[in-house]
Amino acid sequence: MQRVPLGERNGRVHSSTVTVSVLPDTRRGAPIPLKEGDLQLEWYSGSGAGGQHRNKHQNSVRLRHLPSGLVVTAQCRKREESLRQAREALLDRLRDLSEGEARGRENRARSDQVGTGMRADKRRTYRFRDDRVQDHLTGRSAACSAVMRGRFDLLWA
């Protein structure tokens, strides 16, 4: 589980504030399925140095991933090499896109759970001195000793 300092505003957290966020463990580096039907292949003559060989042969590839709209190109002397390079580049860009979306979902989930992390966002107040816990969402209160033993059902409807 990843620990992230939450509830910070301008680098300060109130001394009586604790924020907790429970997020699923996401696995990184999962293989991305690449179906042949999702790819559009276009061969063309390359540009740049190479003269007659470059102009006569269509060894350069433009590979388009239809679901995402990503386009990558590769120019090599052999078609197989161009296609291999284009596939690798496309997979890298799809992986970056996928991981970026996952990070965004994770950050939104964390933000939804924690709020701003400031003292006014409190969900529950524990007063050990009085042996009382007050749940600010349900309005119920219970004995601290019972809640600390796992009896959260006393606070929920």
- Tell me the distance between the termini: 30 Å
Low-confidence stretches: 6-10
What's the pLDDT, averaged over the residues?
80
Biggest pleated sheet: 3 strands, antiparallel
Strand-residue fraction?
A: 15-25%
CATH topology descriptor of the largest domain: Double Stranded RNA Binding Domain
Radius of gyration based on Cα positions: 28 Å
| H/E series | EHEEHEEEH
CATH architecture of the largest domain: 2-Layer Sandwich
Family: Belongs to the prokaryotic/mitochondrial release factor family.
InterPro entries: Pep_chain_release_fac_I (IPR000352), Pep_chain_release_fac_I_sf (IPR045853), Prokaryotic/Mito_RF (IPR050057)
Keywords: Methylation
Biased composition (Basic and acidic residues): 101-111
Give an overview of the whole structure.
This protein has 157 residues and is an alpha+beta fold. The protein folds into two domains: 39-117, Double Stranded RNA Binding Domain (2-Layer Sandwich), CATH 3.30.160; 122-157, no CATH class. It is 30% helix and 17% strand. It contains three helices and six strands; from the N terminus they run βαββαβββα. A three-stranded antiparallel beta sheet has the order 1-2-3, with helices on one face. Strands 4-5-6 form a three-stranded antiparallel beta sheet. A hairpin with a 5-residue loop joins strand 5 (132-135) and strand 6 (141-142). The chain is rod-shaped and about 90 Å long. 7% of the residues are buried. Residues 6-10 have low confidence and may be disordered. GO terms for molecular function: translation release factor activity. Residues 101-111 have a biased composition (Basic and acidic residues). Residues 101-125 are annotated as: Disordered.
